[in-house]
Amino acid sequence: MSKKNKSFIVQGSILAFAGILVRVIGLLYRVPLTKIVGDVGMGFYASAFEIYNLLLLLSSQSLPIAVSKIVSENIASKKYANTKRIFKGAIYYSLIVGVIFGGVAMIFADYISNKFYDLPQLSPLLMILAPTILVVCVLGAFRGFFQGMGDMVPTSISQVIEQIVNAIVSVVCAYELIVIVKGVKAIKNLNHSSESYISTVGTFGASGSTLGTLFGAMGALVVLFVFMHIYKKRNLLPIEAENEELQPYKTIGKTILFTITPVIMSTAIYNISNILDNPIFQNLNGGTSVQRSALYALYSSGYKVLTTMPIAIASALSAAMVPSVVRTYIKGTKEDINKKIDAALKFSMIIAMPCGMGLTALGAQFCDILFSFRNNTMATMMLMSTFTVVFFSLSTISNAILQGIDKLSIPIKNSAISLIAHLIFIVVMLKVFKLGIYSVVIGDFTFALMVCILNNYSIK
């Protein structure tokens, strides 16, 4: 393996290790959190995060990749002064977008909760998550800048700190709010097995959990401010050339917008399937809102939590891969790009295949130990883990490859085709075959499989 490929694999490994550590912390704190909040509360929590994740998809989730792509292009072309101007432009963009989407979450919290999910319990959770969107948008601009510079350490450390703060605040606040609400006289007098009591306690517990997300994001932002100060103090930022022609901020704004928009669309379409699955399931599956939330919690708080851990390695590699492929695309040859693609695919599969098979064999036991999800439904879902892990890992890497070689429209088209097929498929499985929560699991990996096939055909 060449030095360049080793460097990109090392940086991807740093980010992957941080991603795995973040998910391990997530697993550990979900154990006490699930016991404190309960299955119903975790169902509310998961549903609120589906909406929150949708708003992040449309605002900031793809911001680090887009900013890193633009920054790495300018670094490769030795346009160092413009690199700094692009970072400032990205900060302004993130502030504007964060205010807009945070405002949408705040203003339309009641409407979204009642009309789309038929779960009024989600409204207070969305109001807590609204300011988090602004903070995460700014985080995306900082992380994209450091990744574009080829340094994954600031992003990695900030992610770990974010999750540690999130874990502590989530558990403490959930516990304290439930203690407070259980002490209220009107709640004390309710039958503790009634849906009204379970729903009220679950709502307050889930609200406390969402506070952890806000404080975690704020902690990560502080870490990145510290790294930027270190960069300036040690003169690690690019040195401006005297004869470099500065681009006006208007041109930089257009560059950011025209790069971010297709990446956002691609990432949003690619990830929106999971977000749309919940309201489809809530509206088409039988039972009460409490029963549906408890059932969906098995998928979102058990199956998804475990399967996304190995997929995090592919996500980390794709984040490290984009700036590396961009620089090779500008200065290198087709052979160099192919070597990086092969290295990324081999490395991700070395992790994805054994992890997926391990979850298929032992996933039910993990869910029992970690979350006390002890039923046949959970065990049957975990049998399908290998498909989800492998197909999502491959499709994530293939998206990054296409974005790195400036084929930004292809992932949009491929993800859109796969999404339409996915939505039809999951509705048929719910309404015709009555597969319940299994419809969501099967639809999950078949969507990734279709993206994977279309992307790999496009790359070839």
Features:
single chain; 460 residues; mainly alpha
* Rg over CA atoms: 22 Å
Total strands: the figure is 0
Derived from helix and strand composition plus strand pairing, the structural class reads: mainly alpha
- Low-confidence runs (pLDDT<50, min 5 residues)? none
Instruction: Encode the helix/strand succession as letters.
Output: HHHHHHHHHHHHHHH
Helical segment count:
15
Q: Helix content range of the residues, please? A: over 70%
Mean pLDDT: 83
Q: Biggest β-sheet: count, sense, barrel?
A: none
**Beta-strand percentage range:** under 5%
Assign an overall shape.
globular
The N- and C-terminal alpha carbons lie at a distance of 22 Å
Please give a structural write-up.
This protein has 460 residues and is an all-alpha fold. The protein has helices at residues 3-59, 63-76, 80-107, 109-116, 123-148, 153-182, 185-188, 195-233, 249-284, 289-331, 334-371, 376-382, 385-404, 409-431, 437-459.
Summary of the model, kept short:
With 460 residues, this protein is an all-alpha fold.
Question: What secondary-structure arrangement, pairings included, does this model have?
Answer:
Elements: H1 3-59, H2 63-76, H3 80-107, H4 109-116, H5 123-148, H6 153-182, H7 185-188, H8 195-233, H9 249-284, H10 289-331, H11 334-371, H12 376-382, H13 385-404, H14 409-431, H15 437-459
Helix pairs in contact: 1-3, 1-5, 1-6, 1-8, 1-9, 1-10, 1-11, 2-3, 2-5, 2-9, 2-10, 3-5, 3-9, 4-5, 5-8, 6-8, 9-14, 9-15, 10-11, 10-12, 10-13, 11-12, 11-13, 13-15, 14-15
